[in-house]
C-alpha cells in the first residue's frame, strides 16, 4: 500500500516518500549519487526532448567535450577555480599508474570548452559560436537530496562566444526567456526571473540571470541560470579574433544550464497529499486505463474495450494496467502517487451504459463520459486543460506568496510564518545580505534595478529592490 | 581547400584527414580524449534516436546509474576486476579531502548495476528485468584513434536479468539481431555475427556474441557485443529470487553495448577517396543545395528557387549553402568530404531550363532533373536508393573479401596481401590462436560450431571453423 508522509506536517519526508513510492530514484552504493530509475529517467528524457528543440531554435549546436579537465587548464581562471576547486572530484591514478597531472572531473565545462574555443575562433566570421552539451557533472556535496542536490547530476550546459557585450547580453537574455517559457509551457511552473546580486553570481561571471520557482513549503528553488561571462574567460584562455578592421579583439562569452534538479522542482511545485502530479507535456504516461472486473468473462469484455480505447487514443501515451492480483483501489493509489494526469476506469456497469469514468489527477474531478466521445482530440483537449490548470494553481500560489515590505520586523514575520518570496529594499552591500541570511535563513534570490527606498536593516539608501526567500 | 591523403596508399592518414576535414572531432587537452564537434555529434544523435527505439521495442527501459563505482563493489567479481582494473581511472580525492575508499570511473557498469539489482529482484515476478543506459565510459588507453579507440567514449549498455539460461540466451541473441539489423538498415553496414572464442570473451561472461564489420583497408572492426553473463554476477552480488515454488534461485544476466566507435566504423566502411559517405538514415544533412551565380540578380533568383525547393522537401534534412566568398567548387568539395548523400546544384542556366542538377554522393552520378519533379516523395525514393546502394557496395566488398582455407601457407598469404576475413579450421586452443596472431597479427573474430576438419597450424583436430582477421 502506498504510504506517504503528510505534506503539510513534514514536507522533507513527504518529498522522500513520493520519490520512493513513485519509483523515481534509488540510493546507490556511492554516497551522494542516486540511481535514476526508469520512471524518473523517462521524465528527464521528456524534458530533454522538449528543451533540446528550444535550444536548437536559438541556433545552438550540440557537441560533447571531455569529462576530465587537466589541473593546468581548470586553474587558469582564478575566480572560477577558487569557486569550484573545493567541490571537485580528482583523478590521480589511471591505467594502474599515478598521473603526472591531476585530472578534475568537470564541475561545469567553461574551462575545457573555452580553452578549445581558442583553437576554433580566429575571425569575426567565426562568431557567434553557440555550443551546447548534455552531460554528467560531479560536485562534491555532503548534504544531498535526490534530484535537488546530488554529487553527480545530469544537465545541459550552453557555451557561446560573441563579438560584443551587447550580443552576449542578448544571448543571456534569450536563454533566460527560453528557460522561463519552457518552465511555463512544458513544466507548468511559473518562475520569477532576474539578476543575481554580485555575491551570488557564478564564479567568474560578469553577471548571472536566473529563474526561481516556489515550492509548496514556501521555499524557493533555483531552476536555471544564464551567465554573461564577460571577457574573463577569453583573457584566461587566450581566445581572440580579428574584427572587420583586422584588429585583434576578445570575444564575450555566455554560459547557461538546467539540470535534473528540474525533476525535484516538478515534485515540490506540483506534488500534493496524494503524491506527484505530472504536467501532461512531460508525463511518461499521460493516460492510464484501469479495467475493473470480477469474473473472467467480465475481464475479457472490459479489456476488449480498454484495448479499443487505446487504439482510438493514437499519439497519446496510454498504459493499460491489466496486472492481475492487484485491486483497482491499489492501482488507483499507485497511479495517483505517480502523478499520471488522467485515469480512465472501466467496469461492467460502465460497459452496460457505454461509458467510462474519467478522473483528473490535477483536481480529482470524476466524470462519466460516453465511450464513443473518447478520442485523440477530446483527450488532447483534456490534457491541455490539465496542463493549464496545474500552471494556474502554481501561479496563484506563487502570487499569493510574493509579498513586499519596507519593515524588517514584518520581513522576519513573513519569512518565519508564511515563507515564500519577499521584496524588500536593499543597500546593495553583501554584508547586509549575509546578516539578514544568518538571522532569517532567507537569501537574496534576485534583484531589481528600481529603487529610491531605504534598506530597513542597515538604514542606508537602497540600491535595489531585492527578492528574498529561504532556498533549497 | 580540402586535402586528404590517398585512401589506398595511407589509410590511417586518410582516416585522420577525413575526420579533420569533415569537422567530426578535435583533439582535446586531455590525452586520449576527443571533442565531438557538432557534425560528428549530430551523427551520434541520429544513431541514438534510431537505436533507442529498437532497444525499447525489446521491452527495455532506460535508466541511469552512477559514474563512480566504489572499489569494494567493483572488486567483487574476480574475473571482471582482473580484466578491467588495469584500464580504470581512479578518483582518490573529493571535496578537498583524500577519500577513505577509492572510486573507479565506470569502464562498464555490470558491477554497479547488478549490485543494485540485488535490491530490485526478490520474486520471479520481478523478472525479466531489462535496463539500458546511455552513458560516458572511461578506459585508460595509450594508443588512441578518434572514435575507434578513445579514453572516454559514449555508449549504451543494456543489462538484463532472467529466470533461466534459455531466456538469457534468447535475450543475448535478440540483441545481436537488433544490432545487425540496425547496422544493416540504418548504417548500411553488413556485419558477420557469431560467438567469440573463450579467450576473447568479456571478462566475467559465459560467452560473448559480436558483430564484426570490414573496413576498406581489409581490417576488421568489432561493432557491437552481446554477452550472456551466466550466474557469475548474481553470485558475486548476491542477486536471488523466489521462484513459483518458493525456492531461492539465481537469475541469469546479459549485457550488451555499442559505442561512438560506430562513427569510426561508418568512416572506414563507407569512406572513399573524396571523404565520408553517410547513409541517408543517419546523415545530419541529407540534401545540400548549392546555388550558383555571378551577379546579384542571379543570386536573388537562384536563392528564391533554392528556398522554394527546400519548402517542397518537407521532412527531409536540407541545408542551403548560401555562404558568400566561397566558390561552388569549394562547396562541392566540402559537402563531399562531409558525406552528404545528395547535392542539388542550381545555376542561372538551370533556371532557364527549369531544372536542377542532382549529384549522388554514393556513386558520383549527375542528373539534370525538372524542378517540378523534385519533392519529398521523389527525394525520399532517391535517398532510399542511396541507402541501399551503400549497403550493396559494402556487402559486395565484404563477400569478395571473405575467404576460406585449410592451408596455413595460403592463410598467411591472404592476410598479408588481400586482408579481409579468413575462415580456417581451429583446434580450439587459445595457444594456437595466440601463435597465429603473433605470426600474422590476425586474431579470431568469431567461431562457428560446424567442423570435422584439421587445424592446419597445430595439425590437431579442429573444434571450430574460426574467422580470422587483422583487427582495429
Structure report:
The structure is a homodimer of 472-residue chains. With 472 residues, chain A is an alpha+beta fold. Chain A has three domains: 11-270, Bira Bifunctional Protein, Domain 2 (BirA Bifunctional Protein, domain 2), CATH 3.30.930; 285-381, Rossmann fold, CATH 3.40.50.800; 402-470, C-terminal domain of ProRS (Translation Initiation Factor IF3). Chain A has helices at 11-21, 38-57, 71-74, 78-84, 110-120, 165-185, 232-236, 261-270, 296-311, 328-337, 348-352, 376-400, 408-417, 430-440, and strands spanning 25-27, 34-36, 61-62, 68-70, 89-94, 97-105, 129-138, 152-162, 192-195, 207-214, 220-230, 241-242, 248-249, 252-259, 287-291, 318-320, 342-346, 355-360, 366-370, 402-404, 421-426, 442-448, 464-470. Chain A has a seven-stranded mixed beta sheet with strand order 3-7-8-14-11-10-9, sandwiched between helices. Chain A has a five-stranded mixed beta sheet with strand order 16-15-17-18-19, sandwiched between helices. A four-stranded mixed beta sheet of chain A has the order 20-21-23-22. In chain A, helix 2 crosses helix 6 (165-185). The longest helix of chain A has 25 residues, at 376-400. Chain A is globular, with a radius of gyration of 25 Å. The model of chain A has no long low-confidence stretch (mean pLDDT 96). At the A-B interface, strand 2, helix 2, strand 3, strand 4 and strand 5 of A face strand 2, helix 2, strand 3, strand 4 and strand 5 of B. Strand 5 of chain A pairs antiparallel with strand 5 of chain B.
Amino acid at each position: 500500500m502506498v504510504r506517504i508522509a503528510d505534506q503539510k506536517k513534514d514536507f522533507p519526508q513527504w518529498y522522500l516518500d513520493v520519490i520512493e513510492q513513485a519509483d523515481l530514484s534509488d540510493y546507490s552504493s556511492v554516497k551522494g549519487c542516486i540511481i535514476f530509475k526508469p520512471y524518473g529517467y523517462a521524465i528527464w528524457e521528456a524534458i530533454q526532448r522538449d528543451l533540446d528543440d528550444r535550444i536548437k531554435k536559438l541556433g545552438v549546436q550540440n557537441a560533447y567535450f571531455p569529462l576530465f579537465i587537466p589541473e593546468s587548464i581548470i586553474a587558469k581562471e582564478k575566480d572560477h577555480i577558487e569557486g569550484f576547486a573545493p567541490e571537485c572530484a580528482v583523478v590521480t591514478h589511471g591505467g594502474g599508474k599515478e598521473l603526472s597531472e591531476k585530472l578534475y572531473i568537470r564541475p561545469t565545462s567553461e574551462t575545457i570548452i573555452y580553452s578549445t574555443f581558442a583553437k576554433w575562433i580566429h575571425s569575426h566570421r567565426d562568431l557567434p559560436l553557440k555550443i551546447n552539451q548534455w552531460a554528467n557533472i560531479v560536485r562534491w556535496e555532503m548534504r544531498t537530496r535526490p534530484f535537488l542536490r546530488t554529487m553527480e547530476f545530469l544537465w545541459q550546459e550552453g557555451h557561446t562566444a560573441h563579438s560584443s557585450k551587447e550580443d552576449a547580453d542578448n544571448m543571456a537574455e534569450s536563454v533566460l526567456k527560453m528557460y522561463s517559457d519552457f518552465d511555463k509551457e512544458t513544466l507548468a511552473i511559473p518562475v520569477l526571473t532576474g539578476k543575481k546580486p554580485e555575491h551570488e553570481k557564478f564564479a567568474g561571471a560578469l553577471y548571472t540571470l536566473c529563474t526561481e520557482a516556489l515550492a509548496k513549503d514556501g521555499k524557493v528553488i533555483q531552476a536555471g541560470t544564464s551567465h554573461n561571462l564577460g571577457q574573463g574567460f577569453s583573457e584566461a584562455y587566450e581566445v581572440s579574433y580579428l574584427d572587420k578592421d583586422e584588429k585583434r579583439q576578445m570575444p564575450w562569452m555566455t554560459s547557461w544550464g538546467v539540470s535534473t534538479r528540474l525533476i525535484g522542482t516538478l515534485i515540490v511545485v506540483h506534488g500534493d497529499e496524494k503524491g506527484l502530479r505530472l504536467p501532461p507535456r512531460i508525463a511518461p504516461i499521460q493516460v492510464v486505463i484501469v479495467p475493473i472486473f470480477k469474473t473472467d468473462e467480465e475481464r475479457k469484455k472490459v479489456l476488449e474495450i480498454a484495448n479499443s480505447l487505446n487504439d482510438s487514443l493514437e499519439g497519446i501515451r496510454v498504459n493499460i494496467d491489466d496486472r492481475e492480483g492487484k485491486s483497482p483501489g491499489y492501482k488507483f493509489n499507485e497511479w495517483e502517487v505517480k502523478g499520471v494526469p488522467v485515469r480512465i476506469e472501466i467496469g461492467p456497469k460502465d460497459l452496460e451504459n457505454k461509458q467510462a469514468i474519467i478522473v483528473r489527477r490535477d483536481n480529482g474531478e470524476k466524470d462519466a463520459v460516453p465511450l464513443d466521445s473518447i478520442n485523440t482530440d477530446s483527450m488532447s483537449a483534456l490534457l491541455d486543460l490539465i496542463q493549464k490548470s496545474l500552471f494556474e494553481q502554481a501561479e496563484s500560489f506563487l502570487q499569493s506568496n510574493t509579498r513586499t515590505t519596507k519593515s524588517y520586523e514584518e520581513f522576519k514575520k513573513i519569512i518565519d510564518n508564511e515563507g515564500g518570496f519577499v521584496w524588500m529594499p536593499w543597500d546593495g552591500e553583501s554584508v547586509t545580505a549575509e546578516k539578514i541570511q544568518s538571522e532569517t535563513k532567507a537569501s537574496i534570490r534576485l534583484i531589481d534595478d528600481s529603487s529610491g527606498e531605504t534598506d530597513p536593516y542597515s538604514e542606508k539608501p537602497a540600491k535595489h529592490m531585492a527578492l528574498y526567500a529561504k532556498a533549497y
